[in-house]
Amino acid sequence: MKPAQVQAQLTRVLSSAIAELRDPRVPLIVTVERVTVTPDYGLARVYVSAMGADMPELLDALGRARGYLQREISAQVKMRRTPTLEFYDAAESRL
Question: Which Pfam families match (predicted)?
Answer without folding.
Answer: RBFA (PF02033)
